[in-house]
Amino acid sequence: MITSIIIMILSGAALYIYTKWLLQNEIEEELYSEKNRVEHLLEQNPELVGIPPIITAEKTEIAQPNILVDTLIYDPLQDEIELFRQLSGTKNINGQNYMITVRAMTIESENILFAILFTFLVVILLAFIFLFYLNKSRNEKLWKPFFVNLDRLKSFSLRSNQPLSLEDSEILEFHELNREMEDLTAKIQIDYRNLKQFTEDISHEMQTPLAIMQAKIETIINDIDINEAQFNEFSSLQTDIGRLKKLNKKLILLAKIENNQFTGTETTSINTTFKETIQNIQELAAINIKLKEENTIEVPMDGSLARVLCNNLVSNAVKHNSNNQPVLVVIKDGSVLVINSGTEVLERPDQVFERFYKESKKRDSTGLGLSIVKKICDYYGFTPSYRFENNKHIFQVHFVV
């Protein structure tokens, strides 16, 4: 539209200038023709005085070249002052110089000029409006399949068993794009199902041999006479197998979160989930865990993920607590703060939620607990953070999205 308006203005100005130049040339040619006629009439009738104010002929002693000017002259017939184009000059006829002046009214030419320009602009404007709405309706028809397919792409899910079906288009480029998108999404669906199946299979297959290995070690320890060194080795091996089982479960959980396999969105009470978690942990760990509730938090999320989130936060605080100080859980302002005592700040606090990052030397630490917390928060749009204040490690999760 902007381009069309600029073209209309420039073309209108060009038409105005060019038409005005043509009309002025035509008037000047007519004036020269009239002057030649007057000169021929003067040769036949030296006393001719012309037709004022259009034509005048006066005797003069001074020779003057032809001069073209615009002038305002009173027209008695119109009873008003009009604009004329005037050609004046002297001509020697039969030994006598005559000042011959011929004039042509320019008002009519201006009216013609404006009529032409107005007609041109109206025609161009109507053509522009017609083409605009014609192109708009045509483009809407051509682009309709594209936007329909775009909506289908936005609602497409890898978890669905239905293939992506796109509306065909008469545009060659859109047709080829649709075909490539259908092939691509079909391949991605197959890869996703294969990866999901592999994840489930490896989770199941690894747990069984690990459990068998632990059972066999327990049998050896209980049924066979072994010395203290051998007992320590078998105990260490059992611990490593238990850690491997725990690591496998956490990696599978991370994979499921990243693959969006948790679709439950029931309303979950964070207060209740933390109460259950604290009660369960206190039965296993000889440490005091205090819960301070200033308000209630209920969020739409999968209940199992809520329990994992709470368990990982509290377990991390208990595991890395120093001097057997109480662990404090505070629920307020749409956030949960899990606070445990510590002797020094972490070396790299910005990496505390990264996978496999850990500063603790404890063997039972996998470095995945807080990474799972971060993944769950990202999945639901929560905001996790960490800070160290007054010899306290403070992990906070803001649940208000």
What are the SSEs and their pairings?
Blueprint: H1 2-44, E1 50-51, E2 55-60, E3 67-75, E4 80-93, E5 96-105, H2 107-154, H3 172-223, H4 228-258, E6 267-269, H5 270-284, E7 289-293, E8 298-300, H6 303-319, E9 327-332, E10 335-341, H7 369-380, E11 383-389, E12 392-398
Parallel strand pairs: 7-9
Antiparallel strand pairs: 1-2, 2-5, 3-4, 4-5, 6-8, 9-10, 10-12, 11-12
Helix pairs in contact: 1-2, 3-4, 4-7, 5-6, 6-7
What's this entry about, in short?
By secondary structure, the chain is an alpha+beta fold. It has helices at residues 2-44, 107-154, 172-223, 228-258, 270-284, 303-319, 369-380; strands at residues 50-51, 55-60, 67-75, 80-93, 96-105, 267-269, 289-293, 298-300, 327-332, 335-341, 383-389, 392-398.
Describe this structure in words.
By secondary structure, the protein is an alpha+beta fold. It folds into 3 domains: 2-113, no CATH class; 172-258; 267-398, Histidine kinase-like ATPase, C-terminal domain (Heat Shock Protein 90), CATH 3.30.565. It contains 7 helices and 12 strands. The protein has helices at 2-44, 107-154, 172-223, 228-258, 270-284, 303-319, 369-380; strands at 50-51, 55-60, 67-75, 80-93, 96-105, 267-269, 289-293, 298-300, 327-332, 335-341, 383-389, 392-398. A 5-stranded antiparallel sheet has the order 1-2-5-4-3. Strands 7-9-10-12-11 form a 5-stranded mixed sheet. A hairpin with a 4-residue loop joins strand 3 (67-75) and strand 4. Helix 3 (172-223) packs antiparallel against helix 4 and helix 5 (270-284) crosses helix 6. It is rod-shaped and about 155 Å long. The two termini are 42 Å apart.
